[in-house]
Amino acid sequence: MAETVVTVGLGDRSYPIRISSGLLAKIGFDLRQRDIGTKYGVITDDTVAELYGKQCLQSLESAGLRAELITFPHGEANKHMETVAALASELAQRGFDRGDALIALGGGVTGDITGFLAAIYMRGIPFVQVPTTLLSQVDSSVGGKTGVDLPEGKNLVGVFYQPKAVYIDTDVLHTLPLDELQGGLAEVIKYGVIHDADFFAFLKKNKDAVFALQQDVLTRLIARCCEIKAWVVEQDEREGGLRRILNFGHTIGHAVEAASDFQLIHGKSVAIGMCAAAKLAVRTGCLAEQDACAIQDLIERYELPRSIPAELDRQLIKKYLLNDKKTIAGRVFYVLPEAIGKVMITNQVSAHDVDAVITCPV
Ligand SMILES: NC(=O)c1ccc[n+]([C@@H]2O[C@H](COP(=O)([O-])OP(=O)(O)OC[C@H]3O[C@@H](n4cnc5c(N)ncnc54)[C@H](O)[C@@H]3O)[C@@H](O)[C@H]2O)c1
Ligand SMILES: O=C(O)C(=O)C[C@@H](O)[C@H](O)[C@H](O)COP(=O)(O)O
Ligand SMILES: [Zn+2]
């Protein structure tokens, strides 16, 4: 199958998202042509290092580029400032300078950490994204949101910093655990709800092909998500308005993720958050019951959770809600669906409705 390319159009900071099978072996050649750095620091977690570290280094070295693998322990629990500080020291000790560049090889945790590191190391060096989870291929590797968590909440420290290119090799999804594939599918469903009813219908129809990682369906799915994200980011890079729609499912989702102490992965927390937002939308009168059911049914079809686990502390969820960046002057912003393919942003949801949805058992 031919390569698919989606462009993120940001003037002189525009960049390509290249999508194809077998791309990992070709990135060295492409990077040499782009002349992004003298030496490449390949930042990756221990799991991905074991699976794809060697392949990535070989791709760069066979193109005549110098590269070094630098690892950190996998998992959301390590997406914090201490990891960034340790990686920055490692770069300095290995002599990385302003002529060098970073490669984020891994999932969203690696991408968020590496992008942030690239933005602040020596006040900014270039980086590229090589996402290896479905979630990172359809969402986190695109758009330049980088950052880490604080004990007080998710992604509370970070900057907007765009990559120079995104390389999506669909082959790497074959080693991804099912749980992680499903997490990515939650963000995929998000795109259908916020912007594209036809894509929502496509997902409804193609579940088996998606789970079987059928190449044509997978490429179409990843490309459509990247197109929608690029379309949003091109209009509102720094989340002054439209970009907030990408946060559908993340208001309650992020609070649930943090309250579970990251035992619930990001994508699954977003699935729960999208169902909660659909319920809130019905309660506030902006969404028809049957559309809320359609959203919940698709989430269930992809074997994702729909409700907040009973054992999670509701008060803790409310505390995290108030610490989130979506809370301004004490008012929490929600992205609520109005129909499949259309959402609105509001900070006028009553505490009573939020309480009802958070405490609701199903
Ligand atoms: N910046 C953004 O725009 C943005 C968007 C969405 C999510 N995020 C962030 O992304 C993070 C979630 O990303 P994620 O779901 O990719 O999690 P992740 O990076 O933790 O990856 C999930 C797990 O899969 C393993 N893994 C990665 N690729 C693999 C492969 N090909 N085969 C086998 N195992 C593999 C990793 O080692 C990890 O243990 C969260 O921190 C979330 O906040 C950021
Ligand atoms: O790119 C964006 O914008 C998003 O909101 C994408 C989300 O899927 C992602 O989880 C993001 O990290 C959330 O950002 P935050 O600013 O709410 O922390
Ligand atoms: Zn997300």
From TrEMBL:
Residues at which NAD(+) binds: G108, V109, T110, G111, D112, T132, T133, K145, K154
Domain 3-dehydroquinate synthase N-terminal: from-to ranges: 70-181
GO biological process assignments: amino acid biosynthetic process; aromatic amino acid family biosynthetic process; chorismate biosynthetic process
Domain 3-dehydroquinate synthase C-terminal: 184-327
Keywords of this entry: Amino-acid biosynthesis, Aromatic amino acid biosynthesis, Cobalt, Cytoplasm, Lyase, Metal-binding, NAD, Nucleotide-binding, Zinc
A GO molecular-function descriptor: 3-dehydroquinate synthase activity
Family of this protein: Belongs to the sugar phosphate cyclases superfamily. Dehydroquinate synthase family.
Function summary: Catalyzes the conversion of 3-deoxy-D-arabino-heptulosonate 7-phosphate (DAHP) to dehydroquinate (DHQ).
PANTHER family: 3-DEHYDROQUINATE SYNTHASE (PTHR43622), 3-DEHYDROQUINATE SYNTHASE, CHLOROPLASTIC (PTHR43622:SF7)
Protein name: 3-dehydroquinate synthase
Organism of provenance: Candidatus Electrothrix marina
Gene that this sequence comes from: aroB
